[in-house]
Sequence to fold (183 residues):
Amino acid sequence: MLDISAIKQHQEQAERAASHDALTGLPNRMLLLDRLQQAIALSQRHRTVLAVCFIDLDGFKAINDRHGHAAGDRLLQTVAARLAAGVRANDTVARLGGDEFVLLLTELHERAECELVLSRIREDVHAPVDLGAGRTGRVSASIGVAFCPHDGSDADRLLTIADEAMYRAKQAGRPARQAAALA
Fold:
């Protein structure tokens, strides 16, 4: 008999590293695209709405510059956990890199359901974060949204539309409660 548990464990770690963000443990772009393509097919089959929400943290760079990368990493990990806790089990939260996240909200019956989720997400993101050493930080979120089928049914197109809507929200400089620009 040969014990291959160490080999299997190493293989599982390599697979996880290929599909998840090392800092937050969230799905990365590769896994997000796979889940998005599956969600589009499911949305079309069940005639439900799918929302792709592109999130950029406002104020992250200042915290990272002022308090250092360890504090910035801690903030990203906390925000990632808050985002994951703020969605349902069948939804996806992914980190694309830096301070950019994507929420994939599935099985919505109408677009208004998305705004309810985003309202909670904005509050969760804006809550103070313990940065360590007795310091706290606070960020807000600029959010852009694309809807399937309204804005299309191609994964790359939906991500592009959501990213452009987020950029418009960021440029508008609106308060966090009004930062979602719906495409």
Observations:
- Confidence is low (pLDDT under 50) at residues 175-183.
- The longest strand covers residues 49-58.
- The beta strands are 49-58, 92-97, 100-108, 129-132, 135-137, 140-148, 180-182.
